[in-house]
Amino acid sequence: MNSFSHYTKAINTAILQNDPRPLIRAFSLENPPVSPRLNLSRTLPSPWDQILLFHLSAANSFYSQDYISAYENQAKCLLSYLKVFPTHKRPFLPFIYLLNNQMISFAIKADQTLILQGKEPEKAQQAAWNTNKCFSACITDNISEDDSSRKWGTYHLACTLFKLYFHLHSFHLCKNIIRAIEASPLPDLSQFSIADQVQYNYYIGVLFFQQEKYVKASKHLTFVLENIHYQCKKNRMYLIPTNMVNGILPNQKLLEKYPTIKNQFFVYINALKSGNVKQFDQALQNNQNEHFKNGTYLAMERVRLHVLRRFIKKVYLISKTTRIHTDTFVAAFRFMGLVIDGMEVHCILANLIHKGFIKGYISESHNTLVLSKADPFPLAT
Q: What is the pLDDT of residue 342?
């Protein structure tokens, strides 16, 4: 258990030696904290007296499971530190990360308490506002080319904000962070830590995925896949549907490296390769709850267009003609085990033509698909 003098010594050492490591050790929650003292101004300069007072109050509330009080005091602790943070540089970034992460953790637990009390959960939203202040304190540091600049905390805190916005389902707020980064004279992202690069590319990729901009999403998510531990499944949850939407199947090397990809998407991959619409529909129905939960259902619906395109192309190759009556497709669907009438076939063909998966037109008077003689099945994206 830390003694009170342990905290004051850590703070004074950090101030004198410009070294945050004693602070990080002292302000961690690994050991039960001491009780706060109201009059700290005699032993600590301002605002460190308030920083310590609020932190100890937050830590004691946390250990007594009063998460609302823990959040409120930790938020005050963080905001008090932000008063002195502009005088600190890059070495103190891990300390502000620590204070901020503690505040967010308390905020989420506080919201759970508020929900149980029948009240509106609001602490995570407040935590996002406070985190934004930390982000601003980093991105606005004018020493942009200096290795000691606080700007080196920009991407870390941006990703912390993204994570909070995702938690709050406030995805639109991510745009403000992206714009701020694009407008700032930051060092190139490649100069930041690989952890910052991976996290930022992940969130940007997911945002593009949600906007159905699958080509851009694939670029960012592929970078993540190539630079994360093989056990990280969350990125692959978005990357594989993204690539399949673009008509790109996971290659054999990828499947061998990540067996979980094969287990998750094997049926879809086979269905897409063979144009087996029934197999794809059954897999999508069996896994629809998981896809809805992950936000990948709409992407898999778009992948279905590729399966339909492959199916129509197979019928075309068998028929060996660019003019195919809709009854031929009705029969082909029934042979596969799907009962679809001529009107449904008409709608499917019209949609594939409209989306750019098929080049041609439908002759209404003859109920016939008339395909282009030049590249009738372009790979739409």
A: 87
